[in-house]
Structure formats: C-alpha cells, structure tokens
Amino acid sequence: MSQVEGARVFREAWIEGVHRHFPGEPKPGYVTPWEDTPQWEREAAGAVYDQVRQFIEVSGGRTAKLSREQKGRFVAVCWTAQMFKHFENPKPGYVADWPDLPAWQQETDADIFEVIEKS
To answer: Which domain of life is it from (predicted)?
Structure first.
C-alpha cells in the first residue's frame, strides 16, 4: 500500500473513531474529509500509518496480543513525533502524553491501530 493510501486509511479510521467516541458534536477539523485535509496532516497520517505497519511486521504479526491501551499509546506517541516534526512549537494538546489525552482520543487511537492491523 502506498503512503498516500495508508494516510487515507489512517484519516478514515480517525474520522470513524471520532464519530464513535467523541462526546457530543466534534469540531469540524476533527472530521474534515480527506480532500480538505492540510498537506502536513496528510504527511503525518502517512508516516504514522507506516510506523504502525512496520511495527506490526517486525513483531511477526503478534500485535493482536497487545492491549487496546498499548496499541493506542503507540499511535499517540508516533503522532506526537509528527507534531514536533511539522510544528516548531505545537499546541500542548497536540503533544499531550497518553494519560492527559481525553478518553475519546485514546479510544480513537486504539481504533486506528486495529484498523491498520486488519488492513
């Protein structure tokens, strides 16, 4: 799968997770369709997709044994690294550590991992 295709899988999984887990009406930026997603965010999504995919491969496909929290944490830390790559001084919420992320975002990150795992 190309990085662009992987980025789209990531973005679609994010949007589905936001709709599933966000309490109330999400901000429009959370559910922006692919066509309107900024380039930096497309690149970040592609990079994290690739990192998760590689992690699954180097673990011999044994990531199914990880907990949802472990899967979500991996996505979150990969995303945080991308925020530092794309922004000199990212907003604190963009680089929050796992315990500081809202529950809806933790669940969405775990969903993303599992979607990539199945793809």
So the answer is: Bacteria
* pLDDT 10s digits, 32-70: 999 999 999 999 999 999 999 999 999 998 999 999 999
Give the pLDDT of residue 3.
Answer: 79
Q: Which of 51, 103, 58, 59 is nearest to 77 (CA)?
A: 51
pTM of the model: 0.96
What count of other Cβ atoms lies within 10 Å of the Cβ of residue 97? 10
- Using CA atoms, how far residue 17 sits from 20, 36, 62, 112, in Å, is 5, 18, 23, 8
Asked if 42 contacts 7 with a C-beta cutoff of 8 angstroms, the reply is yes
The two three-digit tokens of residue 109, written as one number: 């990150």
Are 6 and 56 spatial neighbours (Cβ–Cβ below 8 Å)? no
pLDDT band, residue 1 (cuts 50/70/90): confident
